[in-house]
Amino acid sequence: MIPIYSQKNRIKLVVVIVALIIGAATITYTNILVSKLSEREQELVQLYAKGLRYMINAPSDDNIVFIEEEILSANTTVPVILTDENENILDSKNIDLPKNISEKRKAELLQREIEKMKSEHAPIVVPWAEGSENYVFYKDSALLSQLRFYPYVQLIVIACFALMAYFAFSYSRRAEQNRVWVGLAKETAHQLGTPLSSLMAWYEYIKSSPKFEHEPIIEELGKDVRRLEIITERFSNIGSVPLLRDENILEVTRNAINYLQNRISRKVAFTVESTFPPEITAKVNVSLFDWVIENICKNAVDAMEGRGSINIQLVLLGKANIAVDITDTGKGIPKSKVASVFLPGFTTKKRGWGLGLALAKRIIDNYHRGKLFVKWSEVGKGTTFRIVLNR
């Protein structure tokens, strides 16, 4: 396996941490800018209010013109509304209003703006003539409002890129694994071909010899030779699209178990049960499906240390699917390892490459368009693997 893939969990963690650091730094920096800009806008509105206050007692017309042009007109971004002490609207600035609306409609819209402004900032009081007061209501400018949401938009962009990187990495890893699987399978089939041809010739020679005419071992030898043919065919099918046929799933399962029973510990009891009529079919490739049953059952026998029971129950799942539940009385799988049992290389045995369950899942998920998963497991009690097939 390529080293980078063996470190995939660590790489994912690093990517997440880097994304979080970038996100936190972005939000912090943007909040600092927003805070400074907010203070600047508040100062601008306060200056606007002071300009109004000064105009009341301005000593000359020149000063009034200067204040109006240089101070009051300087605010081109912050929305403000000037009202009297009864909140009757006197003036407004930088408020987006529809064109060609009536004065009544304009007053309604400005009143709504005042309510929004109250929720953002307290109004600035402007003392007026004869002891009365005016109020300057204001809210954040469009630029400041956009800047507040900017870090969240940036976080969404970062998250999108992170997801794209994750899926690209996962796709690359799966593609590389596929190439390894196919290459290994084809090479295995090729290597088996030559000795298998020789074995078949020797089998035919021995079977025709009078010395072994009534020897029962010849029949068993023939079964094993045919089994080797099937195994070679299985490996040849990896990487190509297998042919799925409507098969009697109960019969196929029983045949797979019958072959296994004669080749594993006699202290393991097998039972095959079905909750539906025996003529029910499922779309399977018999050669590959037998391989799945064999791999799961052999793992179960190892988990039981050659002593226990394996129950296989076939159940209808609606009108479209059939479930094959394989339950053993082995050691069980800890919850922390359930998600890892189908990973290539995962094994709890001293010997073995940890490819059996990974290959079984690939056959069911990819080639049969079904599902293979751990339905139930409890340490010290056993495990149930569920195969879901299409009818």
TrEMBL record:
SMART domains: HATPase_c (SM00387). Its EC number is 2.7.13.3. It catalyses: ATP + protein L-histidine = ADP + protein N-phospho-L-histidine. The chain crosses the membrane at residues 12-34, 149-169. Residues 187-391 form the Histidine kinase domain. Keywords: ATP-binding, Kinase, Membrane, Nucleotide-binding, Transferase, Transmembrane, Transmembrane helix, Two-component regulatory system. It is an enzyme of class 2 (transferase). InterPro entries: HATPase_C_sf, HATPase_dom, His_kinase_dom, Sig_transdc_His_kin-like_C. GO terms for molecular function: kinase activity. This is histidine kinase.
